[in-house]
Design a protein that fits this description.
The complex is a heterodimer of chains A (about 110) and B (about 120). Helices cover about 0% and strands about 55% of the residues of chain A. Chain A has about 110 residues and is an all-beta fold. Chain A starts with a strand and ends with a strand. Chain B is built from one helix and eleven strands. In chain B, strand 7 and strand 8 form a beta hairpin. Chain B is globular. The relative contact order of chain B is 0.32.
Chain lengths: ~110, ~120
């Protein structure tokens, strides 16, 4: 049973436009959400996070939105750049015995075309 | 600032052998986490160490074990290797200490050890 779902395996965007990556979760006990970017042959790189007490967090070109009632979060990248082409993972943590344990989605491959 | 470092980069073993993977966290980080990424699967949580203690464990058999040293570096040991253990093993570190604080600290990952079982 997947607790964190990224339903789009891939996304293609033109350079300079907005990239929107989506993530859904099922466990209402999750209270901390993160986005990671991964290039081939490298480990995931932390991008941005948000706790459940907020609905938006911004860091430069990256903004994460959290909709707790819908159990949905999204990552907006504006403007998109070719160097943003990578696999993006959504992750969640929190609640009960899952301390320290990040639950990851399966990732969305973003391609930004020049 | 040096990131999380893992060694070796690649490790080839045969069934039944033991594998030892090593991880050095970012300076100042006390929590170390281990994840497995098998082919076609997402990252699966294995173990969490903080201040030398095992704090949490994922749904893996006891032949997956590890430890954390006084300098906060960590080892992951996999005994009686099976073909299905072939995977990328990722180590991450974070600030931590108390359980509730560790929950809200981002984990920073190394580049992993690719373990291949022949």
């Amino acid at each position: 049973d997947q607790q964190v779902k990224q339903n789009s395996p891939s996304l293609s965007v033109q350079e300079g436009r907005i990239s929107i990556l989506n993530c859904d979760y099922t466990n209402s006990m999750f209270d901390y959400f993160l986005w990671y970017k991964k290039y081939p042959a490298e480990g995931p790189t932390f991008l941005i996070s948000i706790s459940s007490i907020k609905d938006k967090n911004e860091d430069g070109r990256f903004t994460v939105f959290l909709n707790k009632s819908a159990k949905h979060l999204s990552l907006h990248i504006v403007p998109s750049q070719p160097g943003d082409s990578a696999v993006y993972f959504c992750a969640a943590s929190g609640g009960g015995g899952s301390q320290g344990n990040l639950i990851f989605g399966k990732g969305t491959k973003l391609s930004v075309k020049p | 600032e040096a990131g999380v470092t893992q060694s070796p980069t690649h490790l080839i073993k045969t069934r039944g052998q033991q594998a030892t993977l090593r991880c050095s966290p970012i300076s100042g980080h006390t929590s170390v986490y281990w994840y497995q990424q098998a082919l076609g699967l997402g990252l699966q949580f294995l173990l969490w160490y903080d201040e030398g203690e095992e704090r949490n464990r994922g749904n893996f058999p006891p032949r997956f074990s590890g430890r954390q040293f006084p300098n906060y570096s960590s080892e992951l040991n996999v005994n009686a290797l099976e073909l299905e253990d072939s995977a990328l093993y990722l180590c991450a570190s974070s600030l931590g200490g108390w359980v509730w604080e560790a929950n809200y600290q981002p984990q920073h990952f190394g580049d992993g050890t690719r373990l291949s079982i022949l």
